[in-house]
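Hi support team,

I'm opening this ticket because the web form for multi-chain structure prediction keeps timing out on my end. I have pasted the exact lines I submitted so you can reproduce it. The total is 1171 residues across three entries, so I didn't expect it to be a heavy job. Is there a limit I'm missing, or should I split the entries? Thanks in advance, R.K.
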Amino acid sequence: MRIKTLFGLTTALAIGISASAAFAENIKIAFIDPLSGPFAAVGASGLAQYEFAIDQLVNQQGGVLGGKNLEIVSFDNKMSGKESLIQLQVAIDQGIRFIAQGNSSGIAHAISDAINKHNKRNPDNRVLFMNYSAVDPALTNDKCTFWHFRFDANADIKMDVMTDVMAANAALERVYIIGQDYSFGKAVAAAAVRDLEAKRPDVEIVGNELHPLGKVKDFTPYARKIIASGADAVITGNFGADMVGLGRAIIGAGFEGPIYTYYGAATGITRTFGEAGKDTIRLVQEGGVNPPASDRAADYITAFKAKYPEQDIAQARITNVVEMLAKAIDAAGTADDVVKVALALEGMEHDSLWGGKIFMRPQDHQAIQDVHITVHTDEGIQFPLDNSPFGLLTESTVEMAGMDSATTCQMQRP
Amino acid sequence: MNDTFQNTAAKRPLVSLRDAAPWLVATGFLLVMPFIFTANSTITIMNQMAITIIFALAYNMLLGQGGMLSFGHAVYMGVGGFMCMHILNMVEDYSLPLPLPLLPIFGGLFGMGLATIVGAFSTRKAGTVFAMISLGVGELIAACSIIIVAFFGGEEGIPGDRTYGLPFFGNEFLHPIDVYYLIVFWLILSALLMYLFSRTPVGRMANAVRDNPERAEFLGYSARKVRFISFTASGFFAGVAGGLFAINYEILTEENLSLILSGQILLITFLGGVGFFFGPIIGAIVFTLLQTVLSLETELWQLYVGALFVATVMYFPGGLAGVLMMHYPSVKLGKVKSLVVPYLKTLVPAIIGLLGTAGFIEIMFHGRHAAVGDEQMTLFWISLNSHSALPIVVTLVLAVGGIWVARRFAPEMAEAWHRSITPNAPPPPAQPPSTRDAA
Amino acid sequence: MDLFLVNLIDGLVYGLLLFMLSAGLTLIFSMMGVLNFAHASFYMLGAYFAYQISTYLGFWTGLLIAPLIVGVAGAGIERYGLRRVHQFGHVPELIFTFGLALLIEEVVQFFWGKSQKAYDTPEILQFALFSIGNNSIAAYKVFMIFVSIAIFLALLYVLTRTRVGMIIQAALSYPKTVEALGHNVPMVFMGVFGVGTALAGVAGVIAGPVLGTFPGMAFVLGSIVFVTIVIGGLGSLWGALLASLLIGWMTTFAAASSFQFADILLFLGMERPADMAASKLRDLWTLTMPQIGPILPYMLMVFILVVRPHGLMGKRGL
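Hello R.K., no limit was hit. The queue was backed up. Here is the completed structure from your submission:
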């Protein structure tokens, strides 16, 4: 063991870490999501939306606590649970009290678990988890904690909305469910079966299938099965390359019915579907932008596109995270005592930039909000995605979706 | 601590001070580290380093000492870790009297168990057959980790809580610092055991089998048996690393079994140098720093790591340890001082050139990807405008100029190095392959 | 029956695509002893180059030019990278290609970004040629079949009927002797590496629009190509073809099947547990064939390596 080398390297390490801890005036939010590797596109998009939202909605409006600015600090977790935990520790050491993460429910579970342990073991510097995107229902049910707040509608609520819309379609006879073989894919499938049986017992589920996550090169055989089953509609929770591959294969094989998705748009997906996906791909989401809810929303998007021409407002809820957190910090009168901030967030009602209200349900920390079904099209699109002619047009809306949905959460409060 | 220079002593005491010194120094060093770097995050990163070091040393028992190239070694660490996690949860559920520090033993045993099963058919041949079987088995187990949710926990993995076990001399392992000392204990113990393994007859035979299996067979050793023993031993220490991972992170996910991790450990080991016992240690330290610290500074860190790796394979096949050990004779001959000036002449411009290149890449990247109007960027603590010509020109000049100067002085450096390792003055004309274009 | 026919065609398309990748790789492997880990990265480069060219000059120009660029790049990497590492032995060579694969992925992300590219099939082929049952077979798939078969025939012709082919064949088995006969073996190596990577480039050009053009495309396909040539046997073009088709059909039919492992368990006389969540075997009860389809080739490879290390058609061991 070369002592000098070891020493030199660790010195470098110390410099690297402490360099960014030098100034501590702003109230910081740690953004822990992939900024390198295969999922970096989604992470980079989220980061841009956070930067813009913080600047426009908080700092330019006078900041919080009488003039302090918010600041987002990015940490690359490389879509790895282990790296997320290391970066979480680095963030906590830099005195950051608010952690934002969203991509991958698996990592959200790891972070939520780690934060729960950390807060128990270190009551002096507790942190809060702003989950802006991970939708595994367990996070606000069995695995819920006081420190975790979810701003997106969870997978069950989204499925509830999706099946409401499907149930209203009298012509629907056969549905095919396909997803990636992991917790989220299974949760989507289970929710779809449950909701469809409850709402439309006459609809036949002609296929319920899982395929390996990120390992399928060619989705054609799956598409063939879907066609052969005579399905009228497809439900999938696929994301990323699996979403594109599956969607293109199904359309390419001659399918014409709707494909209901959770993640079938933005970061290249909309542009890749292009003409082929028109009127076929549907997406369940909060915060639709076509048509925009208000002039203020339209101006916000226009300003965002002017600053980040390569990015889109693909995760509209990020503005809610930022605005609600700022409100909670002001209401609590402190950004250091996160218990006070959390209590202020609980039960908060907020007028979303994207129309409608957001209600942070106190019993499980699940944000209740309007959820829309949108369709991939190029007609009537004011704000397209991916710099293509195509975008998502709101078809139907369920207000305050899942307001009285059940939760198994038994929250332990400090 | 390295093979070449200790074989020469034919007869000497079992443990000499010279043998023990590096270990004592390393131990003292590891014990003092937390007093220098007190932040939790640095300790977490040092924990990660220590775990990677054990894993990399275990991997090098195959690659460096046994000549077996494995593409799926993460599964032994992962399976050991998963078993430890289950045991940890059982300790919590049934209040078993198992102190936490003993947990990694179970990881080791299960890692070894799996290695015994796989090794039974994979170690028949070395070379490509072994490599491809390891790839196949690695992929199979990694795929199982998502399918068999009952054991592997699917995508969320298996979480646990290390603090629910018995307090160990009053310590509940609440904080990273407690875990640090636990890991350091296992690091020193495993490293020492692995080092001693390489000194045993089996360890020596592993080298012989690596270099020439026919000859080893001819001497009456079963090459297969030797490979098998190395393989299971390596599985044991990989499992220990897995157990430590379970304790440190309190969660194991499918990522712990993935081919990506298997590939990473190959990179780490090779980067550090497979030819020396301490090579993987350097590799693990450098790689962890690059991964956790460089990635805080730049999104392009993987590009730099990839480039560093390719450059290492092309110019320093002995890895970083090989570069260090190239200078061992110079130290021995007391000629290190003669190297300082030629090295500075080449390396300073080379570093300037490389930093210039990196700066150029960063400016290009920022210029293309940053938000409109957001033209300021910080590069090496200097704030500049990525859309103006001046910084681009400056970095380009630095890059081209630095590398040009370095190349000019490179032959001089190589010559100086050669003189420094030669006992008597006359410099031989031939140059070693590994330093030819060293800049 | 209809579905069976459709799957047969889809499997053929996928298998032939694999063949285009594995043909080049098996030539490189058997001649130089290098498992080229970066082979799939050249496939990715082919797709990205073709995408870039197609945005200016259309798909067909891309099909012609992109493989050439990839081949030249491959030859250059052999000449200035691999040849240098060659002197250190096989393991460093392999590790070099491993690092190269990482580097190429990063470089692609640097230039083209991280999200999927809208690289599409040419308009002239965007129609359904015919349909079986309700399933339509796109004209582009038939085009893929023809391109792959044409490449196979051309390769076969070059290798068995031309002088260059004879030298390559000889160099496959007796590189030393060929060198002694005065042939420039390094030159042959460079040529073979260039042609092999160019073939991977062609595969990328024609598969990019169908399987997607994104930075992870090489990683997804990377290891399966090795599996193919190991199963097929070293240096055997026919073996590569056979193994490619085998894997193509195997994964297609596995994905298409609706076989459930619960059937086996029931057949063994086990009872379906009433409360699935409490059962230790719950994952086995819910397991289906499509879930394990993509890992079948790996099982086959391990099996073949254990019982027949020189592969299906290989002449010598690994």
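A quick check on our side: The radius of gyration of chain B is 24 Å. Let us know if the file doesn't open in your viewer.
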